[in-house]
Amino acid sequence: MFIQSLCFLCLRPFRTLETTPGVPMQFRKGLTSVQAHVDVPEGLFEEEYARNGFFGRTSHLYRSQPPVGWTDIDGDLRPEALRVLDLAGLGEGGYWKGRVAFLENEDVVISLTMLREAMPAYVRNADGDEVHFVHKGAGELETDFGPLNYEAGDYLVIPRGTVYRYTPSDTTSLLIVEAFSEVGIPDRGMLGRHALFDTDVIKTPDPAPREGGPFQLEIKRLGRITTVTYPFNPINTVGWKGDLTVWQLNLRDIRPVMSERYHLPPSAHSTWIMRNAVICSFLPRSLENGDPGAMKVPFFHSNIDFDEVLFYHDGEFFSRAGIEPGMVTFHAQGIHHGPHPKAIEAAKTKTFTNEKAVMIDTRNPLQLTEAGRSVAMADYWKSWM
């Protein structure tokens, strides 16, 4: 539910910060803190109840019991944890079939695939842009614009209509977000255009035409595959110019925003935006060590307007107990979300978080596919008990 208002308010990208129309109002009733996420009264639990992620109208509720202190959940809103590396058919039956979708809606499809050898055919997605995150592996990505050598921790943003092919030098696991809209970079607002990462760190390909033939090109359109055969290599670009191309960005080149005295909302870590969805990157960073009353773990919140998906890439996930690299958690709109009890206690002595994770938030509800359900952990929702 953490959508960057600078790019998502009113669903129009690259806007400046706006307020909800009408007269601003602020009420305060009963026992509360003065500053959100700081000096919560002893024995109480703060919940952020907000529209448009954390940028619309907001209230903070101070509860005597944590809102995730349930004893049973019966229904579709049960929090899920998925062992997506165990999905059946990863990388089997060709590239398109080997991309196994586990969550989807009308705006995005979230998949995982495993590449063990060079793809036999080139491919082109005519349905949408793609963001590939390299969880493991290394190799070469050939594209219309030229080749890129990839490694773990890379984002590879491939615009709709681009021809590409992977040649792994090491078995490669890819998290894929297929967006039925254009993928862009969020406006950083008052932080300035060089915050989080300077666009100069984004790598783009140099043309390198390939020879040989014949070659096949598999084009996906409306979910169906058309195969085109060429007597030559379709990667035959000798030069290009413009502002539409393939992007490569590694996690190490992202510099997270930090605050010593206030827990920032996850939208401060936005990396890519698209229609009705955002991708954020959580990276190693200092915790809120400048104020003993400041929260260090994510605050309890109601998923009102957005579904939240988190892919755990590497490190120690201090807000989650029992999570391993390569797992996914899914928390749907309509049910509370917040740190595990053990994480709250453990955070009291921590000064630094060493996690690396990719978060995908969607305005429209996601649905688990049958494949996704097959790798869901039955008792994950009990981990708050």
TrEMBL record:
Q: Which InterPro entries match?
A: HgmA_N, Homogentis_dOase, RmlC-like_jellyroll, RmlC_Cupin_sf
Question: Which cofactors are named for this entry?
Answer: Fe cation
Which Pfam families would you find in this protein's record?
Answer: HgmA_N
What UniProt keywords apply to this chain's record, in alphabetical order?
A: Dioxygenase, Iron, Metal-binding, Oxidoreductase
The yes or no answer to whether the keyword Nucleotide-binding is present is no
The yes or no answer to whether the keyword Phosphoprotein is present is no
State any single GO MF term. Answer: dioxygenase activity
All copies of the Homogentisate 1,2-dioxygenase N-terminal domain together span: 114-250
Q: Which residues cross the membrane?
A: none
Similarity field = Belongs to the homogentisate dioxygenase family.
Tell me the protein's name: Dioxygenase
Source organism (scientific name) = Geothrix limicola
